[in-house]
Every structure is written in structure tokens, then in C-alpha cells.
Amino acid sequence: MGKVQNEMSEAQNEMIKAELTVIAGDALDKHSPTPLYYQIETLLEGHMRSRDWLPGDKLPTEDELCDHFDVSRTVIRRALLNLENNGLIWRSPGKGTFVARPKLKESLIQTLRGFYEDTIAHGHTPRTRIVEQGPRPAPESVARFLGVEAGEPLFYLKRLRFVDDVAHLLSETYLRLDLCPCLREMDFEAKSLYSVLESECGLVIKRGRRVVEAVAADEATAALLQIDPGSPLLLLRSLMYIHDEVPFEYSIGMHRADRSRFEIDIIRE
Predict the structure, then answer these.
(1) CB neighbours of 133 closer than 8 A, spacing ≥ 6?
(2) Is residue 227 within 8 Å of 208, Cβ to Cβ?
(3) Higher pLDDT residue, 23 or 15?
(4) Element (DSSP H or E) covering residue 195
(5) 104 partner at 20 to 30 Å CA-CA among 10, 11, 89, 174?
(6) Per-residue pLDDT tens over the stretch 102-158
């Protein structure tokens, strides 16, 4: 029994050594006006950016970092908190601190690009799987936004969107068939919705309004997004208008909170 414990202890020590070897060359300038926590934050982030540490890799413990940098736990905790707030790491009580997967930056207000265009613009590879597509009677809650009668045929599109082959977003979209009847014939796994609207229907989205709220994933949504039920989602409700202020598209997008980060421009008028 003692031999097994010693072997386990030696293996753990080797893992710790391997983790610390990566930062062996890191040193703080304790005479610099730059705060120590910020120096540590910058050094650790550098290892993530240079891919010395990959998504899912475990970081050294707080005690190990304190010993390595010869600083207090308060300094280390502030550096880690900043990295966590910036979405670069995540912490699991009792398990440790891990490198997070990079979050996709999405334009919430600045532009009116669709998901496909936005993903390409940020250097990622999008993919779409159609969950459901076809005419559907307008629910009362949707009809009032689109200015149609409840029960009037709309085009319904439910899509599971992937970024670099990881499930990222589940979207439900309602569009007015009376303004673009050719939607029935389109393959939206291979085509961008907004590109089709412009090229096939001659319609251009002019402006829109979005509302964001935090929700928990139900079982059906969690299964599609490959996450646990109850996981946090960012839910976006969008109403888009074409020319002459005509409402045309109403959509609900459920974004994985662990994979999304929205940027918002704020202007004081």
C-alpha cells in the first residue's frame, strides 16, 4: 500500500514539475510601477496565446504560483480573477483552474451581419444543421411582432449552428412568406439566410432590435447543443426590418454562454 502511495505521489510531483516548467523562465520586475498581479496576468495569458497551455489544460495551483513568483495569495487571486473575467480560464471547486476555450466574439449592435458572415469575419469556420424547415402558422406571440394575423403562414427555420465543428447556437427564425415566397425552396445548410434574402428575394435587412437575457438550457436544447441541462445560455430575441420599416424577421437565438462573448458599442449623445 505504501509503495502504491509513493508511486502516486511521485507521479503527482512529476505533473506539477511539468506544469511549472512551462513558466520556469517567467520573472517579475518587482521594481516596476506595473502592479505584480498585472505582470502575472500578462505572463500567464502569454502562455495561453502562444499555446504553451491549450484549452482544457490545468494551470498550476494558487500555492504553486505563490511559491514560483514569490508573491502573496492575494496577488495571485487577483491575476486569476482577471483572467477568468476575460474568459481565458475557468475554475472548478475541488478540481483546479483550467484554460478555457476561446469565446467567439459576436457583433451585437455594431453591424447587421448574419451568423455566417460574423463567424467568417472573425476567422472561424461555420457549419449549419437544419433541425426543422418549412411553413408554419404564426403563433400569436410572433404575429404581433411581424404585423400579421395569428395563424397566417410564415416560414419557420430551426438551425443548429457550429463554430469550428463545436455546437454553438440553436436558432429559431420566423420570416414573412408573403414578402419572399421563394424561401420554401432554399437549402439553408449551404447558404446564408441574409445572402438568400438579398440575391433571391431582393430584400435587405435595414435595421433591427435585440433583447438579451440569461436562461438555463432545457433538456431538448441541451441535447442539441451538447451541454448539460441547466447550463447557462444567452438568449437573444431579434426583430429585423426591411425598407419602409416593414418587420420581416423574428428570431430567437440560444447561444452557449461558455462559447459566446458579445461586444457592445456605447455612445453618449
Answers:
(1) 156, 157, 158, 188
(2) no
(3) 23
(4) helix 193-200
(5) 174
(6) 655 554 444 455 666 667 776 778 888 999 999 999 999 899 899 899 999 999 999
As given in the structure block, the three cell numbers for residue 80 are: 486569476
Q: According to the 3-state scheme, what is the secondary structure of 248-266?
A: EEEEEEEEECCCEEEECCC
Alpha carbon distance 252, 56 (integer Å) = 30
Rounded CA gap, 259 and 256, in Å? 5
Q: What is the mean pLDDT of residues 38-62?
A: 86
- Report the alpha-carbon distance of residue 202 to residue 169 in Å, rounded: 27
The least confident of 17-26, 39-48, 256-265 is 17-26
Three cell numbers written together for 3: 509503495
Report residue 200 CA to chain centroid gap.
31
Residue keyed to cell 420599416: 245
Averaged pLDDT for residues 82-94? 81
Q: Name the phi and psi angles at 182, rounded to 5.
A: -70, -5
Report the alpha-carbon angle 253-256-257, nearest 5. Answer: 115
Task: Domains for the chain: give ranges and CATH numbers.
Answer: 2-99 (1.10.10.10), 104-263 (3.40.1410.10)
How many Å apart are CA 120 and CA 128, to the nearest integer?
Answer: 13
